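Q: Please design a sequence for this.
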């Protein structure tokens, strides 16, 4: 029986996909804090691709990247809003961190769009504007149809 290290060197993982997803998510989160683990994350993506295909693996990876960035931004924004005793300097540091993470979020969104065959203009969706859920818009259109039918 081969060791985990030997399996990783060969690019083959003998884990359930749920475990691979979990580890990929953890390693992606660590990478946002400076971990140099790109090779390991690529091995996890390859393990997913072996079982689900490269298209699915790329979608999953891009979605994880997008999710991690969005969570980081939400946590920092919440901390600013909830903690009224933060100094101006600390609010400024957090705002700069949010801006840097937002660049990662946009990159992840662009990669996801590429895999989906879409073109995304990062400037189009990142302006200050009221957000309306896509689901709310679809729901309201469905109600209009029901009333007119």
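A: Design:
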């Amino acid at each position: 029986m081969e060791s985990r290290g030997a399996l990783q060197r060969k690019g083959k993982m003998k884990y359930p996909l749920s475990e691979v997803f979990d580890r990929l998510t953890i390693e992606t989160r660590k990478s946002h804090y400076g971990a140099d683990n790109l090779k390991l994350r690529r091995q996890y993506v390859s393990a997913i691709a072996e079982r689900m295909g490269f298209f699915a693996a790329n979608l999953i990876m891009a979605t994880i990247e997008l999710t991690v960035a969005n969570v980081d931004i939400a946590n920092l924004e919440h901390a600013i809003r909830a903690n009224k005793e933060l100094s101006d300097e600390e609010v400024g540091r957090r705002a700069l961190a949010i801006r840097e993470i937002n660049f990662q979020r946009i990159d992840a969104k662009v990669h996801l769009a590429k895999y989906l065959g879409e073109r995304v203009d990062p400037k189009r969706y990142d302006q200050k504007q009221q957000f309306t859920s896509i689901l709310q818009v679809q729901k309201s259109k469905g109600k209009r149809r029901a009333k007119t039918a």
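Q: Thanks. Anything notable?
A: The helical segments are 4-10, 17-31, 38-52, 54-82, 88-115, 122-125, 134-148. Confidence is low (pLDDT under 50) at residues 144-149.
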